[in-house]
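Teaching assistant's notes for section 4

Start the section by putting this record on the projector. Ask students to predict, before seeing the second block, whether RNA polymerase sigma factor will look compact or extended. Collect guesses on the board.
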Amino acid sequence: MSHSSSSQLPSDLPRRFESTRWSIVADARRGTPARSRAALEELCRAYWYPIYSFVRRKGLPPESARDITQSFFVRVLERDFFDAATPERGRLRSFLLKSVQNHLISHQRAAAAQKRAPQAMLISLDQLEPERRFQLEPADPQTAERSFERQWALTLIERAMDRLRTELTDKLGPQSAARLIQLLTGEAEGMSLAAVAEELQTSDAAMKVRMHRIRGRYRQLLRMEVADTVSENVDVDEELKNLLDAL
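Reveal the predicted structure now:
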């Protein structure tokens, strides 16, 4: 990645981000089968819900949506799936959206959905309660495509927040981490910053500095999650803006 690009990443970027999920997609044909499958299974676990939400908003019932989402994941593991992946299509979300659109059309044209053996499944959607999560979404007239964009953005936000929570827990313990996350998200049960500072046995000034750093770290983690889904020719800040606009 060029250091002169406006999408330059922080110098302390973890090494695992040198291979982004987009590069995993683009290079899947050349990797060893075991490594490719492991990486792609992780990709599916990370981004399954925008796919499911898209299919449901296309009007399919829960059981059919689960079947189509699962069969799409199986399709992802087939190496010719990536024949259409090119650097010019450097946004993973756009590539997957177009792919699931095509998969849904093929599925609907089929006389009956192909049955998959249990061992072919990557993840159990039943355990993840996809329909319960879908029913919690606000009712709105969004198209399925717009819903996909929104759920993609929410997925990246959730992943960034989970990473921040893990970092704070490792450093400060679960109770302090939980309170700081609540303060960050505005869910500290009506407690002021001063009250949280007192609870955590620190000064107001120190708490303000800590929250400033936490907000900065969260923004960095979110940007890293976005960078992990685009190729090097895509401006990370532009992609981040597009995702936030989808909300």
